[in-house]
Amino acid sequence: MEQEGTERPARATDVPAPRHLRELGRDEALSLLATVPLGRVVFTQHALPAVRPVNHLVDGEDVIIRIHEGGALAALAGPVEGPGVVVAYEADAIDPDTHLGWSVVVTGYARPVTEAEAVDRYAALLRPWVGRPMTGTVRIRPDLVTGFRLDAAPPSVSPVPRG
Predict the structure, then answer these.
(1) What single DSSP character describes residue 69?
(2) For residue 31, how far is the Cα from the chain centroid?
(3) Terminal CA-CA length for the chain
(4) What is the mean pLDDT of residues 53-58?
C-alpha cells in the first residue's frame, strides 16, 4: 500500500528522452520566477542553513515575501539600517514525468519593507497561505540570479550515406 506523498520507484523503462540543459540569463530567470507563486527561502537559523517554503511575488527584480511574528523567518525583518540578511531564494517548475522545466536561484540581501504604501500594496497582492496573520514584509534584492532550463534535446541528425 502506497503512503500519501510517496511514489512508485522509477523503472528502467521510465527513462525520459534526452534533455538539453541551458543556462538562463538574468532577465529570463526573473521572468520565469514571476510565473510561479511558491518558492523556498534559504537563510541562517542558529548558525545553520534553514529552508522554508513561502509564497512570493516579483516586483521589478525584487522578490517579495511576507512573514509572521515569531516565525523562523522573523530574523529577516531585522534592522532597517545596514545591507540586510544574506539569503537565497529558489523556485522551479519541473515536470516530474518528462523532467523538463526550469529552476531559478536568487541570492542577495533581505531587508524589511517599511514604506507604508508598499507594505499595503504587497499585503493586497500577496495573501498568506497559512492561517496566521502576517506582520512583516521582506524584500529580497538580488545580487546574483542564476538558473537553467531543461528542454527536450533536439533529435540527432544521422549523416546521410553517400552512394
Answers:
(1) T
(2) 12
(3) 59
(4) 95
The DSSP output letter for 137 is E
Are 101 and 93 within 8 A, CB to CB?
Answer: yes
Q: Helix or strand or coil: residue 4?
A: coil
Question: How big is the CA angle at 158 (ends 152 and 160), to the nearest 5 degrees?
Answer: 150
Q: Which helix (H) or strand (E) holds 53?
A: strand 48-55
Contacting residues for 114 by C-beta, under 8 A, at least 6 apart: 80
Q: Which residues lie across from 148 on neighbouring strands?
A: 23, 103
Question: What confidence score (pLDDT) does residue 84 get?
Answer: 83
DSSP-assigned letter for residue 80: S
> In the chain, what percentage of residues exceed pLDDT 70?
81
- Coil, strand or helix at 44: strand
* Distance, CA of 128 to CA of 65 (rounded, Å): 9
